Amino acid sequence: RPPRSTLSSSSAASDVYKRQGNSSITWLMGMFIKDSDELVSSCEAVHVYTDQTTMKPTPITDDLKEKLRFN
Fold first, then answer.
1. Less Cβ around it within 10 Å: N or C end of the chain?
2. Torsions phi, psi of 30, nearest 5?
């Protein structure tokens, strides 16, 4: 699980986790009560990279993989 970051003007904190496949990225996100482990909301979003001509999944380029890397 990545480090939790606190939203500046909110009483909540958020977590974002990313799973990277060959042609997709899955983002798992959660919102927590500030200074607590109480989960108040969560979601999962899958982004599939596609070739604009064929509209079929295409591998994520190495350049884009580097840009999407969590530090």
1. C
2. -140, 145
